[in-house]
Amino acid sequence: MRRDIFQAIADPTRRAIIALIAVQAMTPNAIAENFNSTRQAVSKHLRILTECELVKQAHNGREIYYSLEIKKMKEIDQWLEQFRQIWETRFNQLDHVLTTIKKRKK
Amino acid sequence: MRRDIFQAIADPTRRAIIALIAVQAMTPNAIAENFNSTRQAVSKHLRILTECELVKQAHNGREIYYSLEIKKMKEIDQWLEQFRQIWETRFNQLDHVLTTIKKRKK
DNA sequence: AATATATGCAACCAAATGGTTTCTTATACT
DNA sequence: AGTATAAGAAACCATTTGGTTGCATATATT
Fold first, then answer.
1. How does DSSP classify residue B26?
2. In a domain, B85, yes or no
3. Residue B56 pairs with which residues in a beta bridge?
4. CA separation, residue A21 to residues A87, B13, B14, B31 (Å)
5. How many domains does chain B have?
6. CATH, residue A53
7. Which domain holds residue B10?
8. Residue B14 lies in a domain
9. Do B98 and A25 touch (CB under 8 A)?
């Protein structure tokens, strides 16, 4: 049961849910209306998203509004940071590194 | 067999592989030395990464150097773009939206 | 009080995942 | 030519995943 953000966003339905509630908090029923699967399936996705804290709940009577925990989304952004350095500064230099290795071996 | 970037980066070992070859192109054997699992396991990860074009190969004799396809990594960055707008401009407004809904229902 | 609605939880199931072991192929070394 | 090494492919296996159906619980509505 590895429950981290990366595993959470791996599923396309979950990414769609995230995109939905990013705009505005929604109840499980309202979210489920946007998909072909059952409410329970969506509920399970919400549970996974909640477990990794990508989503927060707000109870209102018998309804539960789910909304995105934007802070957590930033963690993906932070992970990308290390590669951003590469694609901004080095660009095609990876090929150079490769060429260097090849020459050294010959 | 959904083979997209998000599913590819879901696995921690694959993220580690990505981080490794981002710095410099490496052969499967060299990569496998950094992990506890067998070379074949790493090889399977490389296949998945190759299938979703996150990684490219460079053959050199019997060796195959794997390196990161930085362009593909940008796709994750692009997906984050929609949320970046939210966390930069709106910030705590999601809670406001929620409150609004609550009030409207009461 | 009785019924309807919103939600979560548990049991179950087929398919996918991550790993292993074994085998084959191709290139390098002696 | 014969052996060693690099790597991929296939078969197999336990576990996880995403989904379903059915049931329980709590809050609204009448």
1. B
2. no
3. B67
4. 31, 30, 29, 39
5. 1
6. 1.10.10.10
7. 5-80
8. yes
9. yes
Cα end-to-end span (Å), chain A: 47
Nearest alpha-carbon partner for B68 in B56, B59, B76, B52: B56
Contact B84 A77 (CB under 8 A): yes
Average pLDDT, whole number, for chain B? 87
Please give the angle made by the CA atoms of B70, B72 and B75, to the nearest 5 degrees.
120
- Protein-covered nucleotides on strand C (Cβ within 7 A): 5-10, 16-22, 26-28
Please report, in tens digits, the pLDDT of each residue of chain B (106 residues total): 558 999 999 999 999 999 999 999 999 999 999 999 999 999 999 999 999 999 999 999 999 999 999 999 999 999 999 999 887 776 555 555 555 544 444 3
Token output for A102 = 């090849």
